[in-house]
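Order emerges. As here.
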Amino acid sequence: MNDQTDDQPFELDAAIIDRFAAIVGEQYALRGEAEIAPYITERRGLWHGRTSLVLRPGSVEEVSRIMRLATETGTPVVPQSGNTGLVGAQVPDKSGHDIVLSLSRLNRIREIDVLSNTVTVEAGVILQTLQEAADAAGRLFPLSLAAQGSCQIGGNLSSNAGGTGVLAYGNARELCLGVEVVLPTGEVFDDLRKLKKDNTGYDLKNLFVGAEGTLGVITAAVLKLFPKPKGREVAFAGLPSSPKDALSLFTLAMDRAGASLTAFELIAKRPYDFTLKHGQGISRPLADDWPWYVLMQVSSGRSEEDGKALIEEILSAGLEQGIVGDAVVAASLAQGDAFWNFRETLPECQKPEGASIKHDISVPIAAIPEFIDKAAGVVETVCPGARVVCFGHMGDGNLHYNISRPVDWQDAAFLDLYHPMNKAVHDVVRSFHGSISAEHGIGQLKREELIATAPPTAIDLMRRVKAAIDPAGIMNPGKVI
């Protein structure tokens, strides 16, 4: 179905377009080239698709009618939330066969239940809006991403988003208690329950969370809330030697803080320097330079004083053991936010250094130092002089292991090495029984590699599930499997 080329553009039948448009109304059926443009290109410009129509339904009933018509006419549908994904799952292919289904108008917070510590929210709600609503209700919604000002809950769930809070609170799947999903047939699977314990058969919601829109359209969800910490302490530490120091500090912090350790981010010197060089309004966290850095957060349910005492105890012990060279604890909420802004700015500050090849990987936490050492060797073998830009969520084993081109290379020549570099790094990941996609998903970017390298039984089972729920093959074709 999706074998059209750039030279053979395909236009949906005008009568079919009119039938889809009638469901949402002309105002919310986008057909013009300028209107459609933001929906068919992902934000890094790596994927550009085609479509004749973007639909913006305003209700679950409209989504249901769209999906029934899509199944009837064999029209592929690409669900899209905030269009912030990094693997191309949310954009149509270049065939022109697909229509885009934007969930942005389904943007109500239906209920905040502070007694149950839950929130029922629609797919188009922006993550930061949900965070602020929870805060106003005296609660915490802990999912935290660099794109939180524009990403939407439907996309967060469809990609099983991770971020900086996974260490303490889990990823999107672990924050989700129930979902409302429109199936390809138009049937509505209503599983919007607040139960923390439910052993009545298969856990169907988790078929859809992380499925990247290939099985159905998530329209709403019940998510967990948490009590707001009474004290949040953030520290920046410089490490004198290697990632082994970071692993030792992490072990120390877990032993002393336990569940109160709510973030532990590892940053190599190169991305640290890139951020100082290219970041806007960025302040240097530490006076001296160090080979590695850690951004650490401790959250206390008792008091600010308790949180401060705990993080100072951890850092003092680290200094005594020689695994910390220098550290500063944020003196105010504003300084703590500035430390986090430094971390969230890192990815953007790699761009001015030229072309890069990125890897979103995870390995067992104990294997991180050895992985970093081995991966550096294979990078140098593939491209001598390439610059490793390593940072990420060490507390949950997820690293963003990015490679910038050598300083004296042209972008195009470096990107010609994309596949050999990708294979070399991922081979190291697999040698540690790790994952080639820790939090960004599969989408278009890693589909072929997943199919080629995952256990055949796993691929077969996924395809059987896909065929059972989406027999017409209309849900986000060409993604994941």
Q: What stands out?
A: Confidence is low (pLDDT under 50) at residues 1-7. The CA atoms of residues 9 and 96 lie 6 Å apart. The longest helix spans residues 304-321. The first strand starts at residue 29 and ends at 30.
